[in-house]
Every structure is written in C-alpha cells, then in structure tokens.
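Journal club prep, shared notes

We agreed each person brings one worked example of a sequence with its structure written out as tokens. Mine is non-specific protein-tyrosine kinase. I'm keeping it raw so we can talk through how to read the token line rather than staring at a rendered picture. Sequence first:
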Amino acid sequence: MVSNFRELLARGANLPKVFVLSLLSALQLHNNEIMDSIFDSRLNNGRWEIDRSTIKLLRKLGAGQFGEVFEGLWNGTTSVAVKTLKNGSMDAEDFLREAQIMKRLRHAKLIQLYAVCTMEEPIYIITELMKNGSLLEYLQKDKGSTLSFSDQIEMAAQVASGMSFLELQNYIHRDLAARNVLVGENNICKVADFGLARVFMVSRTKQRTSLNYGTKFPVRWTAPEVIRYNKFTIKSDVWSFGILLYEIMTFGQMPYPTMTNYQVIQQVPEGHRMSCPLKCPKFMYHMMTECWNGKEQERPTFETLLWRLEDYFEQDVSSYDDANNFH
Ligand SMILES: Nc1ncnc2c1ncn2[C@@H]1O[C@H](COP(=O)(O)OP(=O)(O)O)[C@@H](O)[C@H]1O
Ligand SMILES: [Mg+2]
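Then the structure, token by token:
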C-alpha cells in the first residue's frame, strides 16, 4: 500500500493539493494505528490501564509544574516517556475520562498517549518518547546556529497541522506553548499535553471553587477572553499559537520580555501587543498579529494557518525578500 502511495505521489505532482494532503494524513493515521496496535498487543494485551511494575524508569528527562518526566522501558523492550504526576495534582477519575478521549486522538503531529497507571499515586502517563525534548529547550539551545528560517516555518507548520486535527475534532488544547511541543529527529515536532490543562483546572476549580488559577497560570500564552471570562475555545488556542510563533522566531525568548505578569493581564486585554521580533519576516509577524485579534471570531482557523505556512514553505528560498515586500 505504501509503495503504491509513494508512486502515486511521485506521479501526482499535478494532483490537487487537498487530495494529496488528505492521502498523506490518512497514511499518517494508518502508521499511528499500526504503532498503537503493536503497543497494545505486545505490551498490555489491549488493556488501557497497565501494571506499573511493567514500567522501569531509567532517567529523568525533565520536570514541570505537575510532576517529573522520565525515559522509561516497558516490559524491558520498548522505550517510552513516563510522566509522573505529583500526588493530589488531579483527580484520577477526571483524568481517566479525559485520557479516554486523548487516546483516540491519533495524528502524526500529536504525541500519542499509550497507557496509564492510575490505581495508585503517583499517576503515570505513558506516551511516545521524543529524543530532543521540548521545543522551547531545543530553540534556546540552538539560538539559530543550525536552525534556518525555513526550519522555523516547517516547525510552525507541523504544530499547525497537529492543531488543525484537534480543531477538526472539536477538541481544545488549552495550554499550547513551545514547552508543550516535543521534538524528535530531523526537527519533527509534535504537540503534547493536550487535554491535561482541563483536568488540572477541573481539579483546581473543585479545590478552590473559584476561577483563580494561582500564580502558575500561563498568562503570557492566554487569550484575553480566557483571562476575563474563562472562555476557552479553539480560537483561544489560535491566540496561543501566535505566541508560540513568537517563541519560534525569537529562539525561545519569554513573551512580553519587558513586562510583568500583572502588566500582561492589565494591558493585553486593552490592546497592547508585542512588536515584530528582530529578523522576523513581516509575513510571520502579520500572522502573529492575526492570531492576536481581540475579536476571537476574526482569528484565522488552524487549517488556514497550516495552508499559509505550507505555501510559504514551498516557495523558493530566494523569493523570501520579495514576499516580505508585499506585506
Ligand atoms: N514524551 C516526551 N519525550 C521526551 N521528553 C519529554 C516528553 N514529555 C516531556 N518531556 C520533557 O520533560 C519536560 C517536562 O515536561 P512537562 O511535565 O510537560 O512540563 P512543562 O510542559 O511544564 O515543561 C519537558 O520540558 C521535556 O523536556
Ligand atoms: Mg508539558
């Protein structure tokens, strides 16, 4: 099937792009399904909850607000990433409900959730392992020494691809940021931690019975309507995507670098926006400002963002300057 498909693509230079892309995404889904069924049958006989004794934690990869992440080995054979959640950071039932949905979300640009251990604390979330860690660290380490402008556009397009899949599924990420995009070999980027923010918030709201998310709430990535009315939609994810574009173009700089969190909360809903980063082409900055439209319905869809990034990427590198002049 795959060789036929490749042949078709090679011959099909003139096929409508929408057709080629839908074939491509069908193939990617297919590959993920194969991976998933291998994982299910070899490792947990199709069971969703697995015995934590089958997981060996090998080395700590990092730590986040809610726990630590390890490289792990499942049944002594398969490399995985294991996210261990701090005790009490979320309700096991809430999490399991969300995890059922997350497990069904399969796409080449989304981190695949494989299994969970929720019978006792700490809760384990087992996902695919990404060799190069978070996009934020990847960008900060590189600072542009090896990553070119077209690599930056390609990474942004991959995130837009994962997000346009979520958009199609009517699923909201709620915590899109470079720290939640993971990088594999050859600059492959996949969106991670979708849905987790909701579970954490539900738990926190239960505890506090208020919409006060505490000091760790990622205000610099958050759309004004979320800050004001707690209104999460795919359009608030589009806002965060604009901030992520800023992170990509600045090699992981903190958004609103000269402002405090308090100033961001005060001034962004009043219309304050970041200015164009150094060396950032006008068309990329233009895309960011569209994502930061105060009226959420006027922000572009992820599908549109994906097409525009891909179209730009397909252009000859030499025409970048010309394209800049149009904006
Ligand atoms: N699937 C994974 N593969 C490789 N590294 C990962 C994976 N998931 C998380 N990490 C690493 O662990 C770190 C912490 O992740 P996380 O707990 O999601 O915290 P945060 O999103 O706040 O950085 C990430 O920055 C990344 O370096
Ligand atoms: Mg994360």
